């Protein structure tokens, strides 16, 4: 009853906490979706604003007969002054150069003040777009002037798409040169083509482009939202490898991220938002759990005090009943063990008497077999009549011959445990085989060898092989002794499997199949004792 009351109050408390947490989870998910939508909208707005401004600049440049440095820098400076356009890097003007006109272009650029201007890499029979102007000037890295982005597959793909469509186009991930000590940073670029003329007569004059450091782009778009503890990752979805261009904050597992998709120019981008790690339980849930468990504990103590005396009386009665049951069980178990042992001894005496004419041989054989039975009993007693390893049974019966240097004993096999009755039967068989070997076989001469190996043949059966070699030749005509009778009848009967006993010229060979059975547990409360 006390436990029932405690469990009932605990269950009510648990259901209340669960309901509160469900509401809190739904509220947190709604907030996370709102923040994810806000973050993706902010990045899309920033990319769109820069794209619109670059496109407007491209229209103005197409109206001028020739782009000059002053006009370009005045236009690019507007980007830096407009707070809504911040987050981008350098703005560059790349002038189209037809094949064969590269040398003239280089001479003219050098004459305009770009000393050492060279188009690189050298164009190979294609239109080149070398960088002519860059803003801001202090962001220019060595080698930027004259660099042809058409030599880079990622940039070339974006430029060619922009030229074909006549609209701004964003590139995939590119490495941007940085003036800081941190070295190159991953980013992307937006390219806007500038044409002279219209329709079929239009001619590519150049390309206006702006580079975006992906990390700086995220920070500029989110502003103060960075302090909220959310993780942000910007990924180029058109790339074969969905590797983040930039990420900030703690990233969670894929199944817990909120994914939104946006378009930068004409390129699909994916934004993954990782919500911050929430607390285990809300404050309201913790208070509910605390007061619920206090009430449950108080009711448990009261109910326990009421029922304690009754429980003590029942325990005293149960103890007396248990003692009586244990005495009865021990008496039945002892009776069972004694009957089994006496039956084995009587069988040994009967067969020994039938096969022995001399009283000394009878006594010697009987003593040896009873000792073998006793040795196995010792093993079973040590294991409290539980399971006994095959190796221990074989080792106990062969102990008298184990340290004799005149012959070799080889025992090997896995760890296999036998039930008590099966261990007794195996011990008798090994004793008879060892006695025969010491009198007539491999253990009777120097250089003899006995090999005992065992293995599991199924999950319920183990095979034990006894093989003798190096002993006297076994005669074809021989007297059938008690050992043969015991092994082929008593042992086979007890093990419930036939025994293959062969007297080969080179030595005795015996194969026994032993069941691997788990002994029935000894029941202390009125159950039947003994093993299965």
TrEMBL record:
Catalysis: reaction(s): ATP + protein L-histidine = ADP + protein N-phospho-L-histidine
Q: Which residues form the CHASE domain?
A: 63-222
Biological process terms from the Gene Ontology for this record are: signal transduction
| Record-annotated membrane-spanning stretches | 284-306
What molecular functions are annotated in GO for this chain?
ATP binding; protein histidine kinase activity
Q: Does the keyword Kinase apply?
A: yes
Q: What Gene Ontology cellular component terms go with this record? A: membrane
Its keywords, alphabetically, are: ATP-binding, Kinase, Membrane, Nucleotide-binding, Phosphoprotein, Transferase, Transmembrane, Transmembrane helix
Query: What InterPro entries does the record tag this protein with?
Result: CHASE_dom, CHASE_sf, HATPase_C_sf, Sig_transdc_His_kinase_HWE
- Provide the primary localization: membrane
Where in or outside the cell is it found?
Membrane
| Enzyme nomenclature, EC number | 2.7.13.3
What Gene3D superfamilies does this protein's entry cite? CHASE domain, Histidine kinase-like ATPase, C-terminal domain
Query: What's the name of the protein?
Result: histidine kinase
Originating organism: Novosphingobium flavum
